[in-house]
Specification:
3-stranded parallel β-sheet, single chain, about 110 residues, 4 helices, globular, Rossmann fold, alpha/beta
Length: about 110
């Protein structure tokens, strides 16, 4: 990766770390479109889904409900604070959230909202 790409990645990470506490608060438009994406994608029980740029879980949580215990949804987000907040919400919902670098996972479906 070039120095310019690394700098842009660092800027993006910093921005979304700052936004993480209020990201998708209020009306929750991301949550609406996340549910719609899961519906339109026809994600099946038992599927493996990779949610890139997962934010606060707009796709992660409805996808996890859809795949059930026999499936897996992995969330990837560049912002550590975003991943931490989403992981805490997953724990409150009784889910195990797994975060990491998108280059290290494979799945049946890959979506980003």
């Amino acid at each position: 990766m070039s120095n310019d790409q690394e700098a842009r990645k660092a800027q993006t990470k910093t921005l979304f770390n700052m936004l993480s506490s209020d990201y998708d608060s209020g009306a929750g438009c991301f949550a609406h479109f996340g549910r719609r994406l899961v519906d339109v994608a026809a994600i099946n029980a038992g599927a493996s889904v990779l949610d890139i740029a997962s934010g606060r879980g707009a796709v992660l949580f409805p996808a996890a409900e859809r795949v059930g215990a026999g499936g897996e949804v992995v969330a990837v987000d560049i912002a550590d604070a975003m991943a931490q907040a989403t992981s805490e919400e997953a724990a409150r919902r009784g889910l195990t959230a797994r975060f990491g670098d998108a280059n290290h996972f494979s799945s049946d479906l890959v979506y980003s909202l």
